[in-house]
Design a protein that fits this description.
The chain is of the alpha+beta class. The protein is built from one helix and ten strands.
């Protein structure tokens, strides 16, 4: 016969695993694109997990009803490690760029950092930063994971 404490520990483990599993499902299936009234910026990737050397498509979308302005042709796109260290930023012309409501711009990242090295496996933050019609900065980010 099993000890009473063993049964309790197994039961707690099963319940904890179930709750943690539900949390991860909700965490991984959050929608990246939601259209709203007012100012909104969205960053959308086709998935969250990528293999090394796989091209990552990044869509920057004006998901609001106000025009957004960006200081250069990179649309404020930056890819950093979770520590905040800049890994990649596209070469940009110093020209003011705009996105009208519902418009989008697409970038591709080949997982090569600015220094020419390949990105290692890990979690990366993709962010974009613009300015709304009232001159207020708006920034949006998402994360992707690179696996071997």
């Amino acid at each position: 016969m099993l000890a009473k404490s063993l049964v309790i520990f197994i039961s707690v483990g099963i319940v904890a695993g179930f709750v943690f599993g539900i949390y991860l499902i909700d965490f991984k299936t959050t929608t990246q694109l939601v259209f709203v009234e007012g100012t909104s910026l969205s960053i959308v990737t086709e998935k969250f997990d990528f293999k090394q050397d796989e091209s990552i498509q990044i869509r920057i979308i004006n998901s609001g009803t106000n025009e957004l302005t960006f200081p250069d042709s990179s649309y404020g796109l930056k890819i950093t490690g979770l520590s905040g260290i800049l890994m990649y930023s596209p070469i940009a012309a110093q020209v003011i760029s705009t996105l009208d409501p519902g418009d989008e711009i697409i970038f591709f990242w080949d997982q090569i950092k600015n220094d020419g090295d390949a990105a290692l496996e890990g979690v990366y933050k993709i962010s974009a930063k613009g300015i709304d019609v009232d001159g207020i900065n708006i920034e949006k980010s998402t994360t992707v994971t690179i696996w071997k």
